[in-house]
Amino acid sequence: MVAFLLRRLGLGAITLLLVTVFTFFMMNLAPGGPSAIMNMQTTADQRAALTKELGLNHSVPVRYEMWLKDAITGNLGLSLDTQQPVTTLIGQRFPNTALLAAVTLAVTLLVGIPIGVLAAVRRGSAVDRLSIVMSTVGQAVPDFWLGIILMIAFSVALRILPASGMVTAGSAFSLPDLARHLVLPVVTLTVVMLPNIVRFTRSAMLDVLQLDYIRTARAKGIPMTWVYIRHALRNAWIPIVAVVGLIIPLLLGGSVVVESVFGWPGMGRLAVQAATDRDYNVVMGVTVFVGGIVILVNLLTDVVYSVLDPRIRHE
Known about the structure:
The protein is an all-alpha fold.
């Protein structure tokens, strides 16, 4: 197990390195430059001095080498726009994104798993067909479009939920106010993520319900609710855990759009703003941080496999 974890960590480090190479070169070789330098209100001499001060006068490979040496020591540099440390900006924004992703994941699991189990138990029924239709619609609807529609309906027309931000402007922080601001972003992300959980839960439960030990449990007269929850769902957890491990990166990626639509001050909005301003250091910092989280989540998913099913051994 230890060798497996070390091997996965090594592969994760190589993957993260390749991601940084691709992101850095694609961003720096694109036409244009940081908004701090492209400001036409400054003179050519001022722009040249600022370019030298920010180290942008070196070639792209040299700049990547300099950035990588600093990043290995934990120094992700300064924002080209605000001159704040990138680690500070990420530290300020990540808790907001983590809150949005955690609430969305909890709601998705609490709603999706029961629907998936019910659809499998009542296969071919109206409930099953309704879950398939809902899953298809959820996968087809773009999150930015759904977010705007919800905003128009509940914030503009009905005026019962706030349209953007984390707290009401000018008011003190309170949990009820935060919860009201969470509703629309969470509903938007949940509708998009829910089909994954419903489909995988339904498929895993259908496979398990056909096994001999389930028929034996039924023949013994064990209550069906207990058979479904205690025996069937327990053995269907592995594919569900696998899809949860895939959903977390999707939540972080999907939050880029949803945070922009709802003005949620998280890492997604930070990444969009940094990409718009060509703030190279912030974009690279967010890329490294999110990439590290994705690799860590995948590693934890593999560990959970062996915990849920001791028969699985990682050689």
